[in-house]
Amino acid sequence: MALKEGLRTWKRLFWRLILLTVGLLALLLYGLPVVRHLEIFIPMGTCPLDRELMLKDNFTGLLRLWARPEVLTCTSWGAPIIWDGTFDPDVAQQEAIQQNLTIGLTVFAVGRYLEKYLARFLETAEQHFMVGQRVVYYVFTERPAAVPRLSLGPGRQLRVERVPRERRWQDVSMERMNTLHAALGGRLGREAHYVFCLDVDQYFSGPFGPEALAESVAQLHSWHYHWPRRLLPYERDARSAAALARDEGDFYYHAALFGGRVQALRQLTAHCAQAQQWDRKRGLEARWHDESHLNKYFWLHKPAKILSPEFCWSPEIGRRAEIRRPRLLWAPKDYAVVRN
């Protein structure tokens, strides 16, 4: 009798623990601020490379991977994860100047996103993005005449490309890959050596320099960089071209910032555009649209460099000790206005 009672007690305790765990995960997933602070206790892992080995980056020289022991600074395939303190910005600046580079920056400003976000995006880019380098901004919009004109520094140009207005905001997001692929095969691809593709609803807040350059560049999503793989919001519908199985995926990458050499980006945008077309023919739409397809691409073709959440941070998360110097900040989202 006592044994049965003991088993019942342990069973009740077990299920209470299960329910508590599920409840905390639900609160975490739905973004309750207090609970989100608990995710800092989820370890990011340690650099899998031998401590005696060092990564040498094309633009930053010898990376100081062990200068940030509290965060993950490299991947299992040998790519660096760039955090403040792991690189020398002066070395990166000089290397880019010696290579005589032109760097492209693309942004889509369609509908109300143009009035609400574009001016601040461009003004802060002039203050922080690739300062001292040749830069060409490419603004894609359905209203070229409404693009604000601003005073540009030496060696910096602004080009405006007309795109059609899509019926839904989701289609704006998903058509981006097609448009970028065409631009990279045209004037943008002839003008620039490296290109970064950014969302417009954010602004620069710190130096964003040549330390970010590489053959292909992905960005750790600031809302998901602590999460275990099985909780990451990959596309899970096996019918979709963006689908990843439960045991697949390395990190969750943010489509608000990606980049690389022109040819590498042409391959990326071609893959994502074709995958989205494949889904569309079958009446499917990935959970996070082009971001889902971007994550599938980077699972199949590992990025050469990953930028830490410092390079694209959400102030809504709050202060984090590991986020020392944010480079790019999410602007307040006003979806009720801009997506109508």
Features:
alpha/beta; 9 helices; eight-stranded mixed β-sheet; 340 residues
Description of the structure:
With 340 residues, the protein is of the alpha/beta class. The chain is 34% helix and 15% strand. The chain contains 9 helices and 12 strands. The strands form 3 sheets. Strands 3-11-9-10-7-4-5-6 form an 8-stranded mixed sheet. A hairpin with a 3-residue loop joins strand 1 and strand 2. Helix 5 crosses helix 7 and helix 7 (262-281) packs across helix 8. The protein is globular and about 85 Å long. The termini are far apart. The relative contact order is 0.14. An alpha-L-fucosyl-(1->2)-beta-D-galactosyl derivative binds at residues 221, 291. It holds the Pfam family Glyco_transf_6. One of its GO terms (biological process) is carbohydrate metabolic process. UDP-N-acetyl-alpha-D-galactosamine binds at residues 108-110, 113, 199-201. This is Alpha-1,3-galactosyltransferase 2 isoform X1.
